[in-house]
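Cross-check.
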Amino acid sequence: MSTLVLELRAGDLMVVNGASLRFRGRTRVELVAKARFLFGKQVMAPESATTPARRIYFALQCAYVGPEEERETGMADAHRLVAEFQEATTSNMARQLLERALALAEQDEWYQALRLVRHVMRHEAAVLGLDPASGTPLPPGAIAALRPAGAAHVGAMD
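Predicted model, tokenized:
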């Protein structure tokens, strides 16, 4: 049986099989059974799902680490939200990444699926002038500072 050993600091958050765990002190945890888990910065609170891409991430997160009874609904929501996003976006790259993310989720490759959606979230934030971390609007002067030097606008994804 393979195990995964994790080093966690005080205050770190981890969701395992739908249960939120916050560590009070520095600890070392060994997962000896297959578990569905995400770490603090990877976990999105429901109130943070404020944009189309963020709602897709949240739906996939629920399908992955949510309680068993929420997983099927989370995946159905993700499929619906991806279809809506793909219909509304002009970015072929975003469409392709989201299609790949759904395929990876269906193959039980959750980390890769969520990573691709985080990439789409960063792209969406740049296009819409939002803070990439929170999804909230940036002050007007901050938008230009996020653009690469010499770029007139953000149209392609890195």
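The radius of gyration is 17 Å. The chain is about 50% helix and 15% strand. Passed to J.P. for a second look.
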